[in-house]
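Q: Structure tokens for this one, please.
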Amino acid sequence: MKKALSLVLALGMAASLLAGCGGATSSSAPASEAGSTAASGSTAAAEGDYAGQTLKVAAIETAYGADMWQQIADAFEAHTGATVELTTDKNLEDVIDPQMKAGNFYDVVHLAAGREKALPETMLKENAILEVTDVLDMNVLGEDVTVGEKIIPGFTGNLTTNPYGDDKVYMMPMFYGPCGLFYNKANFTEGGGELELPETWDELFALADQTDIPLFTYPTAGYLDAFTYAMIAEVGGQDFFNKALQYDEETWASSEIDTMFDILGELAANTNSATPSYANNDNFTKNQQMILDNEALFMPNGNWVIGEMADAPRAEGFEWGFMALPAVEEGGDRYSYTFFEQCWIPAGAENPDLAKVFLTFLYSDEAADIFAASGAVQPITGMTDKLSDDNKVYYSVYDNGAKAAIGTFATTAPVEGVNLKDDLCFKMDSVVNGNATVDEWKESVRATIDILRDAMQ
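A: Here is the predicted structure, written as tokens:
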């Protein structure tokens, strides 16, 4: 069987850009003195079972902040009697990678695959991440239910959590969010405006004749990864999507892929022309500001953009709107890609048993409430019922008829000079600028797909 390690492009969008929202900070200290709250009903541990043991936890600090992790550490100490040494940083790889190379391993790491430095991917290729399939059958700490029973179906068993293409889990799913198109409701009839919200791509492009506002912008072209995932599913369906992620030759040579690039090309022609000049890590919020200033109608993004732009000026009457991608044809399926972050245990962890208990605690109602208070939502059954009305708008997109695209490109052996994300996403800048044609874009992607297909392990 060919092994497949996940590339997780969409997570790269979410995690790396969230981590870029502010200056780097780092902290490393015991979370608190051991508490005395009993973990009643849990088979994983009882009060004081792990007294005297130390668990080293490292977590990426994103727009959700670091305080929620401190609260999690404090609560876990209270349940188990263990001591948690917590490290958080916006550039976590720079902190933990040198430590682990020196043999100083962390027990639990919350760091998504798909980031620029690709630390989890590298460790997976080196078989340096511990299998955690058994965690799914463990009771959640303090609860009489297993981890597997609480996780929403589909968030395990994919190439992100099961990166070797078998039934073994190495990466536990954490915070998730649907990705789609954000817009100003005030421009559309649902918010008192004159435009009808489009349900198909043809209807979206027809808006160009009804308004002087450019139809599209994107923060950086990297945000087009989740967008493209959803488009692949829309043009061909779920089986087509799965084959595309495995670099299937017939799939990438198909008329459905031609349709996808036709849509992307028309989007490029209707993109605010200033977008590429701001599409970088220093200025991407200027592109996001276009939605607030009515300088673009639609923008691909994740739900964190609401907090990211909370203090930004906006047009009178502005109200955030969110929808799945329009359908390719009337009555067709609409998709919203779902990214999710991951927690994992390094194979060199000194305390793997306690690390697994900690993983179970992350899916407890107590932990989920702590995370949700900071805006971090886990793929746990029933979580949407606990969210604010604003968050329900985004997390209920699948309740409104959209289908979820979940999956990632299979990682291959390294190929020097080949980067699929560069070809598939960042080429959009060149097309918008007029420096490349849609056909050139499409052929460059197909050439890269051919190379990566041959490099699959």
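A few notes: The domain at 5-176+339-387 is CATH 3.40.190.10 (D-Maltodextrin-Binding Protein; domain 2). Residues 222 and 422 are 8 Å apart (CA to CA).
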